[in-house]
């Protein structure tokens, strides 16, 4: 039989989370952000749950081709724009909208031979200092784009650095609005955190990323349940061995865990080669048959151990939920596991290993 580990993608949860985010910005159109292969879920697997979005936003042309192959005929936005001149030919062929965030991309558009002008999202660097034109150069970039016959409508966008906490979005909103004061075009400034926490910022478009996938953008201040988000990926494995420990017995490499009393532990068919973080310490939460427990000792490549001492019914074959929803409906939010690894739910989703079988429900 196959090794007893499996990830499940929950279609209805994707639909639910999209609608939840939409409810925070009811007058805006929503981009479903599916970069990084839909945050590790798989574009093809996530598509059915997200096709209610107004458009899809992503990074590369391959992902855009895959969406078109699935039958999507609506807007697709390249969030980082194009990287070389010939990319614009693919934009024309696939009818892609794309971000412009530097002068080189404007040069490419000026050199592009096309009879069909393209839809552009001009990006401002309002304080993130990642991509975009600074506010004092933004208008000149817009003017140059607006003069090109290769360009159709120009929308205006920026990205918040602190929408998930202090110092918030006020300074960046002010910089954006001042630079764009009398420029025409649709606006797109809110990411997941801004859509949930600062709904007053929603304008023509919002970009929903991590919230679609059941992770809170402002964890640990707010858990996913606070925003009514449901887990969209569940990683479950089974107990493949049981060990009875005596006081003083150790568990795992380095003997870093020492039993203070008699214990019963289960060995689980999941390790860091499956995408479970090796850095997760002893005590990281899990669900065993839907009941709360925790890991014991270090995570190995293919296995980890969990505490069964208080779970006398647990045995070989018991279900262990590493994150997401257990079969009985109990939920272990991916953010809780990520916090133990000093990272974010984003990383755990994206790091799911190819060797893990994935099913869609």
Mean pLDDT rating: 97
Please state the CA-atom Rg, rounded to the nearest Å: 23 Å
Under CATH, the topology of the largest domain can be stated as TIM Barrel
Instruction: Summarize the helix and strand pattern as letters.
Output: EHEHHEHEHEHEHEHEHEEEEEEEEEEHHE
What is the topology, as strand order, of the major beta sheet?
Answer: 2-3-4-5-6-7-8-9
**Count of runs of 4 or more consecutive helical residues:** 11
Total of domains:
2
Strand residue percentage:
25-35%
Q: What is the H level of CATH, i.e. the homologous superfamily of the largest domain? A: Alanine racemase
Question: Quick one: biggest sheet?
Answer: 8 strands, parallel, barrel
Annotated CATH architecture of the largest domain: Alpha-Beta Barrel
Broad shape: elongated
What share of the residues lie within helices?
Answer: 25-40%
Distance N to C terminus:
21 Å
What is the CATH level 1 assignment of the largest domain?
Alpha Beta
Structural class: alpha/beta
Q: Which spans have pLDDT < 50 for at least 5 consecutive residues?
A: none
Number of strand segments? 19
How would you describe the overall organization of this protein?
With 361 residues, the chain is of the alpha/beta class. It is 26% helix and 26% strand. The chain folds into two domains: 11-215, Alanine racemase (TIM Barrel), CATH 3.20.20; 233-360, Lyase, Ornithine Decarboxylase, Chain A, domain 1 (Beta Barrel), CATH 2.40.37.10. It contains eleven helices and 19 strands. The strands form three sheets. It has an eight-stranded parallel beta barrel with strand order 2-3-4-5-6-7-8-9, surrounded by four helices. The model has no long low-confidence stretch (mean pLDDT 97).
């Amino acid at each position: 039989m196959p090794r007893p580990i499996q990830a499940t993608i929950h279609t209805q949860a994707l639909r639910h989370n999209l609608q939840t985010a939409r409810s925070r910005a009811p007058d805006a159109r929503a981009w479903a952000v599916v970069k990084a292969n839909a945050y590790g879920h798989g574009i093809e697997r996530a598509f059915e749950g997200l096709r209610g979005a107004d458009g899809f936003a992503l990074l590369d042309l391959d992902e855009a081709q895959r969406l078109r192959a699935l039958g999507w005929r609506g807007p697709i936005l390249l969030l980082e724009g194009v990287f070389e001149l010939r990319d614009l030919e693919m934009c024309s062929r696939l009818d892609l909208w794309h971000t412009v965030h530097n002068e080189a991309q404007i040069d490419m558009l000026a050199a592009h031979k096309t009879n069909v002008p393209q839809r552009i999202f001009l990006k401002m660097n309002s304080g993130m200092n990642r991509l975009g034109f600074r506010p004092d150069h933004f208008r000149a970039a817009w003017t140059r784009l607006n003069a090109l016959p290769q360009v159709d409508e120009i929308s205006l966008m920026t990205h918040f650095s602190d929408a998930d906490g202090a110092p918030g979005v006020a300074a960046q909103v002010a910089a954006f609005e001042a630079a764009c004061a009398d420029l025409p075009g649709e606006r797109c400034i809110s990411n997941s955190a801004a859509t949930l926490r600062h709904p007053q910022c929603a304008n023509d478009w919002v970009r929903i990323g991590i919230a679609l996938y059941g992770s809170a953008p402002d964890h640990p201040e707010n858990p996913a349940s606070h925003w009514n988000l449901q887990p969209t990926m569940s990683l479950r494995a089974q107990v493949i061995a049981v060990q009875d420990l005596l006081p003083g017995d150790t568990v795992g490499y380095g003997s870093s865990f020492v039993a203070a009393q008699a214990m019963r532990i289960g060995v689980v068919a999941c390790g860091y080669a499956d995408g479970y973080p090796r850095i997760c310490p002893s005590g990281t939460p899990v669900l065993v048959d839907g009941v709360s427990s925790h890991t014991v000792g270090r995570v190995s490549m293919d296995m980890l151990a969990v505490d069964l001492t208080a779970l006398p019914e647990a045995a070989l074959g018991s279900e262990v939920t590493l994150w997401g929803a257990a079969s009985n409906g109990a939920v272990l939010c991916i953010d809780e596991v990520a916090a133990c690894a000093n990272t974010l739910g984003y990383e755990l989703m994206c790091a799911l290993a190819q060797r893990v079988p994935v099913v869609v429900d």
